[in-house]
Design a protein that fits this description.
alpha+beta, eight-stranded mixed β-sheet, five-stranded mixed β-sheet
Length: 429
């Protein structure tokens, strides 16, 4: 019988990796709490129309990448390819936006049918942050301050660069698209195949083409910045002035447009050169028209998403945090005698009550004292607790340091085990 395997591009995250994931997820959630953001959770499946209306029907995501299927009622459903549209839908449906400001965040799996490669999977994980009800560049600045602090806490600040642009209003972009298309039509035969296809559907995406010849052609193209209206110019000037004031370095990238139709004005990416082709770690921007587009009253909004797979890879590559993570237990409890398992469980539960953050494995499955000691050592635990028949008869238990040659095994009374362990655990940190 053939072995059952995971779907291509949908990977398991194994115990050896989860310590890093948990560290990053906790760092992110603690930081967002510090800035006053509240978590929101929504389904991984939505009506397909939500993404067609928000992302845009002529984007690569909707045309080629979504996992879409009909349910038993013949309604078209889609596994969420991104979180912003879902968050907006949830906020409109639950009345969170009318005359309110919201700072929200979410995390979880997203799904896109792409060619799997390092840092790009078909099931991937994102943290998203969305702010509603604030139209000025101040909240844009706050999001970039927040992410800059996250990079410092994860030890990757030196490996990332902030790129900024303004894509203006819908009217600004319409005027620019016309000028861009007129220019590119003169070089149609020289464009790469993807850019030729996008010219009639989503010409702004040609600006971030990875084809070197297309990029050379774009060197002579009109600049989007020349088509920005006064309001967009003032917003972007306010943002860059604020970033200068708080000391966040950035690079204005006039070809940065982002791939989703709902963006306006500010767009940004945090990028790295440490991960090859998958260089975008975090990206976002303003989407002031999306709430109205999805049936709500007009509400200004801005947000970003960061990919956790890529962030894990970057932390591992830079190496400042990953090497410090340890999934090993603090204590391995060895039971070396018949009928002592209940006694050991009672002692273990008392210790868990006394030390809520303590990680302890109570040996299960029997075995000799020697085999249990081997498992204790292999677990990476700092200490072994040893309960044998002689100790149990005398109300004692042994504490054996496993990682410190300068410390010796001792016996203590079970009644004062918690007090004795408190000082020993402090010493063996």
């Amino acid at each position: 019988m053939s072995q059952v395997r995971a779907i291509r591009g949908m990977n398991d995250i194994l115990p050896g990796d989860t310590a890093l994931w948990q560290f990053i997820e906790k760092t992110v959630s603690d930081l967002l709490c510090q800035y006053g953001y509240s978590e929101i959770r929504f389904p991984i499946v939505e009506y397909t129309d939500l993404f067609k209306r928000s992302i845009g029907e002529v984007t690569d995501i909707v045309e080629k990448e979504m996992y879409t299927f009909n349910d038993r009622n013949e309604e078209s459903l889609t596994l969420r390819p991104e979180g912003t549209a879902c968050c907006v839908r949830a906020c409109i449906q639950n009345g969170l936006l009318h005359n309110q400001q919201q700072r929200l965040w979410y995390s979880g799996p997203m799904f896109r049918y792409e060619r799997p490669q390092k840092g790009r999977q078909r099931q991937f994980h994102q943290v998203g942050v969305e702010c509603f009800g604030m139209s000025g560049p101040d909240v844009d600045t706050e999001l970039l301050l927040l992410t800059a602090r996250l990079w410092r806490e994860l030890g990757v600040s030196e490996a990332v660069t902030l790129e900024l642009n303004s894509i203006g209003s819908l009217q600004d972009r319409a005027a620019y698209k016309q000028a861009l298309v007129s220019y590119l039509e003169q070089h149609l035969d020289e464009l790469d195949a993807d850019s030729q296809r996008r010219l009639g559907s989503n010409p702004l995406r040609i600006l971030d083409s990875k084809d070197s010849n297309t990029q050379k052609i774009l060197d002579g193209a009109p600049n989007l910045s020349d088509f920005l209206g006064v309001e967009a110019q003032q917003h972007f000037a306010g943002l860059t002035a604020a970033l200068d004031a708080v000391g966040i370095a950035y690079r204005v990238n006039t070809r940065l447009v982002r791939g989703l139709d709902y963006y306006n004005c500010t767009v940004f990416e945090w990028v790295t050169d440490k991960l090859g082709a998958q260089g975008t770690i975090c990206a976002g921007g303003r989407y002031d028209g999306l709430v109205e587009q999805l049936g709500g009253k007009p509400v200004p909004a801005v947000g970003f998403a960061m990919g956790l797979e890529r962030l894990c890879l970057l932390v591992q590559e830079v190496g400042t945090i990953a090497d410090q993570l340890d999934n090993s237990p603090d204590i391995y409890f060895i039971i070396a005698g018949e009928g002592l398992y209940p006694v050991a469980l009672v002692l273990a539960e008392e210790l868990r009550s006394a030390f809520p953050s303590l990680s302890m494995i109570v040996h299960g499955g029997g075995g000799s004292f020697k085999s249990q000691m081997k498992k204790a050592d292999k677990s990476g635990a700092r200490l072994a607790l040893i309960l044998g028949e002689d100790e149990a008869n005398q109300g004692l238990i042994s504490i054996k340091p496993l990682r410190r040659a300068d410390m010796v095994q001792i016996q203590v009374k079970q009644a004062v085990l918690a007090q004795e362990l408190a000082s020993i655990l402090q010493t063996t940190k």
